[in-house]
């Protein structure tokens, strides 16, 4: 981005403990970016067709009062937001403080999907505002993105799993119609799944992040890239290099999508 001094970027990357690894170099494609990803990802695998492998059927809502998947599938933003705010479709409702709907640009090209709210998110009602959120914001900044500007951020579940445990399959399935509707309304060009819970639930099958990254998958026809969760990266230094590769791959994929050269096979 123009005007962002290199020193600030470097400082930021150092703070993340990834300065030397996430070092960018001179642009190759005329981007105003401070640099370009080190590895060429232009030869990336074409957009794979994995459409509709994603969970399509969900258990009926126990409430029977406008939280059924069929109703959710027709909602506009205000109705969707209200429905989430009053949802009791899974057990996570019981201990939540605030529901965490999602945040950002509703016309975004980029959608980042995490797992579920942590303590800070549960207090504030916004995704990724705790420690992992700081890293996510820095990851976004490293590829010239920021929360709210052409970026939407959401989670697989809208209510905090107690003790930050992973959401259970039933909880993720109960909540899926909300994310599905958000995605239909946003119509992002690219979805980036952050971590295994997001990956598994968006893909509708179990696999390791290691085996899923570096390829373009699809969620209901929308290109989907898988990378590590920022909270995991905070604990696992070596994989930060891989996360940076994944972000570079996402950037080059987005460039192809925006220029209309990415073809689903
Ligand atoms: N981790 C997530 O997956 N989502 C959040 O919103 C915060 C932390
Ligand atoms: Fe409803 Fe989702 Fe919260 Fe469960 S996690 S209560 S399905 S909003």
Structural commentary:
This protein has 265 residues and is an alpha/beta fold. The protein has a single domain (59-259), classed as Uracil-DNA Glycosylase, subunit E, CATH 3.40.470. It has helices at residues 6-15, 69-72, 77-85, 119-124, 131-142, 169-186, 196-203, 209-212, 230-235, 238-258; strands spanning 103-104, 110-114, 151-155, 190-194, 217-219, 222-227. It has a six-stranded mixed beta sheet, with helices on both faces. A hairpin with a 2-residue loop joins strand 5 and strand 6 (222-227). The radius of gyration is 18 Å and the shape is globular. The two termini are 32 Å apart. The model is unreliable at 1-5, 19-35 and 39-63 (pLDDT under 50). Iron/sulfur cluster is lined by residues 84, 87-90, 92-93, 99, 157-159, 171, 174-175.
CATH topology assignment: Uracil-DNA Glycosylase, subunit E
| Ends apart, CA distance between termini | 32 Å
Q: Kindly estimate the percentage of residues that lie in beta strands according to DSSP.
A: 5-15%
**Protein structure class:** alpha/beta
Largest sheet: 6 strands, mixed
Shape: globular
The unique ligands bound to this protein are:
uracil, iron/sulfur cluster
* Strands side by side in the biggest sheet: 1-3-2-4-6-5
Query: What's the order of the H and E elements?
Result: HHHEEHHEHEHHEEHH
Could you name the CATH homologous superfamily? Uracil-DNA glycosylase-like domain
Q: Mean pLDDT score, rounded?
A: 83
The overall strand count is 6
Weakly predicted, low-confidence segments: 1-5, 19-35, 39-63
- Gyration radius, rounded: 18 Å
CATH architecture annotation: 3-Layer(aba) Sandwich
What's the CATH class, please? Alpha Beta
Number of helices: 10
């Amino acid at each position: 981005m123009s005007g962002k001094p290199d020193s600030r970027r470097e400082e930021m990357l150092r703070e993340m403990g990834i300065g030397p690894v996430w070092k960018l170099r001179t642009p190759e494609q005329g981007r105003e970016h401070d640099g370009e990803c080190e590895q060429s990802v232009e030869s990336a695998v074409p957009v794979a067709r994995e459409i509709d492998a994603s969970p399509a059927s969900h258990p009926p809502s126990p409430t029977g009062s406008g939280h059924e998947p069929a109703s959710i599938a027709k909602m506009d933003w205000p109705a969707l937001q209200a429905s989430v705010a009053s949802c009791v479709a899974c057990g996570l409702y019981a201990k939540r403080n605030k529901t965490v709907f999602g945040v950002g640009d509703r016309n975004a090209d980029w959608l980042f999907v995490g797992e579920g709210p942590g303590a800070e998110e549960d207090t504030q009602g916004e995704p990724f505002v705790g420690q992992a959120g700081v890293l996510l914001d820095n990851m976004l900044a490293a590829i010239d993105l920021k929360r709210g500007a052409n970026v939407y951020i959401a989670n697989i579940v809208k209510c905090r799993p107690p003790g930050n445990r992973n959401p259970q399959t039933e909880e993720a399935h109960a909540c899926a119609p909300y994310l599905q509707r958000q995605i239909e309304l946003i119509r992002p060009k690219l979805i980036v799944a952050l971590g295994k819970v997001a990956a598994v639930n968006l893909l509708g099958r179990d696999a390791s992040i290691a085996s899923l990254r570096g390829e373009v998958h699809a969620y209901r026809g929308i290109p989907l890239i898988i990378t590590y969760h920022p909270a995991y990266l905070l604990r696992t230094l070596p994989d930060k290099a891989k996360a940076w590769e994944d972000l570079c791959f996402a950037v080059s994929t987005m460039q192809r999508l925006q220029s209309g050269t990415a073809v689903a096979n």
